[in-house]
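Hello,

Our lab assistant flagged a job as stuck in the queue for most of the afternoon. It eventually completed. Since we weren't sure the result was trustworthy after the delay, we are filing this so someone can double-check. Below is the sequence as submitted and the structure that was eventually returned. Let us know if re-running is recommended.
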Amino acid sequence: MKGLTVRWSLADAPEGVEEQLASYVADTSHARFTGMEGLAYKTWRMVPGQWFEGCYVFADDAARAAFQETFTAGAAESPGSQIIGSSPVLIEPCEIVAIAEGAAGFTAAPHA
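-- returned structure --
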Protein backbone atom coordinates (compact mmCIF):
# COMPACT_ATOMS: atom_id res chain seq x y z
CA MET A 1 0.00 0.00 0.00
CA LYS A 2 1.19 3.48 -0.80
CA GLY A 3 1.29 6.07 1.97
CA LEU A 4 1.97 9.78 2.19
CA THR A 5 2.71 11.86 5.27
CA VAL A 6 2.24 15.64 5.30
CA ARG A 7 3.41 17.40 8.48
CA TRP A 8 3.38 20.99 9.66
CA SER A 9 5.29 22.37 12.62
CA LEU A 10 3.18 24.06 15.28
CA ALA A 11 6.21 25.47 17.11
CA ASP A 12 5.62 29.03 15.85
CA ALA A 13 1.89 28.75 15.15
CA PRO A 14 -0.54 31.23 16.69
CA GLU A 15 -2.24 30.49 20.00
CA GLY A 16 -5.43 28.50 19.58
CA VAL A 17 -4.33 26.88 16.31
CA GLU A 18 -5.05 23.39 17.62
CA GLU A 19 -8.74 24.22 18.10
CA GLN A 20 -8.87 25.88 14.66
CA LEU A 21 -7.34 22.79 13.04
CA ALA A 22 -9.71 20.42 14.85
CA SER A 23 -12.70 22.52 13.73
CA TYR A 24 -11.44 22.67 10.14
CA VAL A 25 -11.03 18.88 10.04
CA ALA A 26 -14.47 18.26 11.57
CA ASP A 27 -16.32 20.89 9.52
CA THR A 28 -14.59 20.67 6.12
CA SER A 29 -11.62 18.38 5.60
CA HIS A 30 -13.19 15.12 6.78
CA ALA A 31 -16.00 15.45 4.23
CA ARG A 32 -13.53 16.38 1.47
CA PHE A 33 -11.61 13.12 1.87
CA THR A 34 -14.51 10.81 2.67
CA GLY A 35 -15.14 8.77 -0.48
CA MET A 36 -12.19 10.32 -2.37
CA GLU A 37 -11.29 8.27 -5.45
CA GLY A 38 -8.00 6.37 -5.04
CA LEU A 39 -7.78 7.01 -1.28
CA ALA A 40 -8.12 4.04 1.09
CA TYR A 41 -8.11 6.20 4.22
CA LYS A 42 -6.73 9.32 5.85
CA THR A 43 -6.00 10.13 9.46
CA TRP A 44 -5.25 13.51 10.99
CA ARG A 45 -2.78 13.50 13.89
CA MET A 46 -1.55 16.24 16.19
CA VAL A 47 0.75 16.80 19.14
CA PRO A 48 -0.35 20.21 20.47
CA GLY A 49 2.43 22.78 20.29
CA GLN A 50 4.61 20.44 18.22
CA TRP A 51 3.06 19.23 14.95
CA PHE A 52 -0.07 18.56 12.88
CA GLU A 53 -0.10 15.80 10.29
CA GLY A 54 -2.18 14.15 7.59
CA CYS A 55 -1.47 10.46 7.00
CA TYR A 56 -2.84 9.07 3.73
CA VAL A 57 -3.06 5.52 2.38
CA PHE A 58 -3.76 5.21 -1.33
CA ALA A 59 -5.01 2.30 -3.43
CA ASP A 60 -1.96 2.41 -5.69
CA ASP A 61 1.15 4.36 -6.62
CA ALA A 62 -0.61 6.30 -9.39
CA ALA A 63 -3.22 7.66 -6.97
CA ARG A 64 -0.55 8.65 -4.44
CA ALA A 65 1.68 10.25 -7.09
CA ALA A 66 -1.20 12.28 -8.54
CA PHE A 67 -2.30 13.53 -5.12
CA GLN A 68 1.27 14.28 -4.01
CA GLU A 69 2.01 16.27 -7.16
CA THR A 70 -1.14 18.37 -6.87
CA PHE A 71 -0.78 18.89 -3.12
CA THR A 72 2.91 19.79 -3.28
CA ALA A 73 2.28 22.39 -5.98
CA GLY A 74 -0.21 24.22 -3.76
CA ALA A 75 1.08 23.28 -0.29
CA ALA A 76 1.79 26.86 0.77
CA GLU A 77 -1.80 27.84 -0.02
CA SER A 78 -3.45 24.73 1.46
CA PRO A 79 -5.99 25.24 4.25
CA GLY A 80 -3.62 23.69 6.81
CA SER A 81 -0.86 26.09 5.83
CA GLN A 82 -3.24 29.04 5.96
CA ILE A 83 -4.46 28.11 9.45
CA ILE A 84 -0.98 27.35 10.80
CA GLY A 85 0.74 30.25 9.06
CA SER A 86 3.47 28.19 7.40
CA SER A 87 3.99 25.49 4.77
CA PRO A 88 4.47 21.81 5.61
CA VAL A 89 7.90 20.85 6.89
CA LEU A 90 7.51 17.32 5.47
CA ILE A 91 5.78 15.78 2.48
CA GLU A 92 7.01 12.19 2.47
CA PRO A 93 5.83 9.13 0.53
CA CYS A 94 6.13 5.81 2.34
CA GLU A 95 5.16 2.16 2.14
CA ILE A 96 2.38 0.93 4.41
CA VAL A 97 3.46 -2.53 5.48
CA ALA A 98 0.19 -3.63 7.07
CA ILE A 99 -3.06 -2.41 8.61
CA ALA A 100 -4.82 -4.29 11.42
CA GLU A 101 -8.29 -3.54 12.76
CA GLY A 102 -8.58 -4.30 16.46
CA ALA A 103 -11.51 -5.82 18.30
CA ALA A 104 -12.83 -2.34 19.18
CA GLY A 105 -13.42 -1.76 15.46
CA PHE A 106 -12.96 1.31 13.31
CA THR A 107 -15.16 4.39 13.32
CA ALA A 108 -14.89 6.89 10.48
CA ALA A 109 -15.72 10.15 12.27
CA PRO A 110 -14.61 13.79 11.97
CA HIS A 111 -13.79 13.91 15.70
CA ALA A 112 -13.68 11.64 18.72
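-- support follow-up --
The delay was a queue issue, not a problem with the job. The result is valid. The chain has a mean pLDDT of 94. The CA atoms of residues 4 and 10 lie 19 Å apart.
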